[in-house]
Amino acid sequence: MRITLPSGTAAEIARAENNEIGIALHPDIMGLRPLFDEHVARLASQGFTTCAIEPWPGQEDLALEKRMDASFDLDRVLGDLEAAADATECEHVGVLGFCMGGMQAFRAAGTGRFYAAVAFYGMIVPPDPWGVPGRDPLDMLAKPDACRTLAVLGGKDPYTPTADIEELRRLPNVETALYPDAEHGFAHAPERPSHRAGDAADAWRRTLDFFRS
Fold first, then answer.
1. Residue 195 backbone dihedrals phi, psi, to 5 degrees
2. Among 4, 14, 35, 70, whose Cα sits 20 to 30 Å from the Cα of 45?
3. Distance (Å, rounded) from C-alpha 86 to C-alpha 202?
4. Cβ(53)–Cβ(81) under 8 Å?
5. Could you tell me the fold of the domain covering 2-212?
6. Could you tell me the CA-to-CA distances from 2 to 5, 7, 75, 118, 139 in Å, in that order?
């Protein structure tokens, strides 16, 4: 079901039967679309009331090449993720993100709002248009109140090079799930050439176990 967050941002929400654990979800760079409506519904069917935000409110028709170079308002993004958490009406809410959304999930982990975070192939060191000094993933994950975080990573992903992964692994609250032969985007969109069904199934299993534990 589509809802509107207090900021005016559109979101998709589906409620689990028990409504005990919530997930605020940040999609990949292409934003809220049927693929993520399906993810929201599936997560709800597995016991997680889930609310996914639109990352580009008012710019939903922006071309991919423009999105790669576009900046964003980090306060709005984090505020929308917290509003999505509130919309679940759950006592415990985690944050989940994919690609660009994984980068934002890393950042959200340091806000103190979430009990757990999972980032699928989120950029650990953002490119220039997406960098926010002092509030980048490694900065936020190092905060004292940062929640425990699972980073799902591909060994052949150019967006998360080995040196960045090693920096991530130095943080005591971060667990990594590295799939050596996987490329960027291997788990959440079956139509992508990089999709790896076996690795994707395992990554999703680990994600759900992480949120349940």
1. -65, 135
2. 4
3. 29
4. yes
5. Rossmann fold (3.40.50)
6. 10, 14, 22, 23, 33
Give the tokens for residue 152: 């799902």
What whole-number distance in Å separates Cα of residue 77 and Cα of residue 96? 13
Three-state SS at 10: strand
Domain range summary for the chain, segments of one domain joined by +: 2-212
Helix, strand, coil shares of the chain, percent, nearest 5, are 35, 20, 45
Answer whether 99's CB lies under 8 Å from 77's CB: no
Please write the tens of the pLDDT for every residue from 14-55: 999 988 999 999 999 899 999 999 999 999 999 999 999 999
CA–CA dist 61, 71 (Å, integer): 16
| pTM (two decimals) | 0.95
